[in-house]
Amino acid sequence: MKHRLPYRLLHHYLPIAGASALSVFLLYITRPYKDVLTRASFATAYPAAALLSLTLLLGPLNILRKRRNPVSSDLRRDIGICAGILTLAHVAVGQFVHLRGRPWLYYVYSAAEKHSGPRHDLFGVSNYAGAVATLLVLALLVTSNDRSLRALGTPRWKRLQRWNYAVFALAAFHGFGYQAIETQKPWWIAVLAACVGVAIALQLAGLWSRRSGRGSKVPLQALTSEKSNSSQAKPL
Question: Can you list the alpha helix ranges (DSSP code H) found in 35-98?
Answer without folding.
Answer: 36-55, 58-64, 74-94
